[in-house]
Amino acid sequence: MSRQSLNVSRRRFLQSTALGAAAAAGVLQAPAVLRAQGAAVKVGVLHPVSGALSYSGQQGRIGAQLAIEEINAAGGIKSMGGAKIEAVLGDAQSTPDGGNAEVEKMNGAGVAAIVGGYASGICLAASQTAARYDLPYIVDVGVVDSIVSRGLKNTFRFGPGFGVIAKTALDNLVTINDQANKAAKTVMIVHEDSAFGAGLAKLLNTQLPERGFQVLETIPHPTPTRDFNNVVLKIKAQNPDLVIPANYYNEYVLLARTMQQQRVRPKGIYSVLGGAASSYKFVKEFPEAAQYIMDCNHWFDPKNPKALALKKKIEDKGEFYTYEVYMNYSCILLLADAIERAASADRAKIIAALENSTFTGHMMPYGPTKFVNGQNQGAAPVNTQVIGNDIQVIFPAAVASAKPVFPMPPV
Questions:
Q1: Calpha distance 142→131 (Å, rounded)
Q2: Residue 410: predicted pLDDT
Q3: How many CB atoms lie within 10 A of CB 125?
Q4: Which of 13, 39, 214, 378 has its Cα between 20 and 30 A from that of 409?
Q5: pLDDT at 237 over 60
């Protein structure tokens, strides 16, 4: 064989070897690429779906799961090759300890972030536990301001805290009362005794006298409470102009029904974060007890087409469109936006993306999402009132659908 033939054969051998090596490398690398594109992003969805707070927890889970389904159907996280979001469901069992246990499980399962908690006590404990693992935690509802004032870098609250809510509630109460020639002068507060209710009652006891209202008595109660007869007898004896309840759904409904049964009708029932006051379930099941109750709470923008479309979708499923639903729906969208911008399931990168969020895809009458020390500065509550068989927005004026009815008309 000639020298030229030997050289040609050698070149062909080297070329074929190189191609073979490249092909082999491609075979080895392809599964890794496929895994990267197909790998789901695990997200913890934490709610109290059993125990005293189970109704609200189940509602929150409905909203979160629907958002995840819609995100996945629309192509998943596009910056991660269409990665789908996988919900890792957790039941806090209506206790802080239950919330902690679920965070531990979720961390072990490798979740990229957690959404939910609902109750302030659960959110306080669960976000603290998540902080030990630098695990991003988005609070859906919990309103105690210490949730975000502790300096936890992993914790972000989408909705307003009760400092903002109480100020808004009292500003609007003064406006309503002034328009009624200061019909209300005295108040009784009935509140559940956990971090949420006790903290809010303390705040109201400080601020109501500064606004010209006399607090006759503040009555705490545990959750659950199954009998409000003695509480209502106290209200009847002192005959306040206003009753301000601050409690969760079941207790709120029972209090309102007991007042109705005992024919206790103050000039107004004005809730601050009333657990049932802004609930279509309450209005449908107990319309007489619910009539004319006012509330300052989380609520959707009745002029937002996306909010109305989601309302129809939820109601078509036979569910009630409660604030837990759209708060959690929006929180999942907020998290998905952060993961999209982070282009990663890395926890530190998601935290950084949340810190710089300008998310606007929510259903509430909020401004753009901007977190300062974990608190969304764009979040704001609204005032609602049950009028007829519907819940109307009465403040702020920009989204109002009705004017307040106060004092309550006689039966």
A1: 17
A2: 87
A3: 21
A4: 214
A5: yes
Let me know: does 329 contact 363? Beta carbons within 8 Å.
yes
What radius of gyration, in Å, describes the C-alpha atoms of the chain? 27
Q: How crowded is residue 151: how many other Cβ atoms within 10 Å of its Cβ? A: 9
Question: Which of 93, 123, 127, 98 has the alpha carbon at shortest distance from 113?
Answer: 127
pLDDT of residue 411: 79
What are 98-133's pLDDT values in tens digits?
999 999 999 999 999 999 999 999 999 999 999 999
Strand-pair category, 294-297 with 382-387: antiparallel
The helix (H) or strand (E) run that includes residue 86 is strand 85-91
The alpha carbon of residue 17 and the mean position of all alpha carbons in its chain are separated, in whole angstroms, by 60
Domains of the chain, with CATH numbers? 41-159+302-379 (3.40.50.2300), 163-297+383-399 (3.40.50.2300)
Q: Which residue has the tokens 């004319």?
A: 292
For 20-40, how does the pLDDT look when each residue is reduced to its tens digit (9 = 90+)? 444 444 444 434 433 345 699
In sequence order, the β-bridge partners of residue 390 are 387
**Residues β-bridged to residue 89:** 45
Instruction: Supply φ then ψ for residue 12, to 5 degrees.
Output: -65, -40
Q: Which residues pair with 217 in a beta bridge?
A: 188
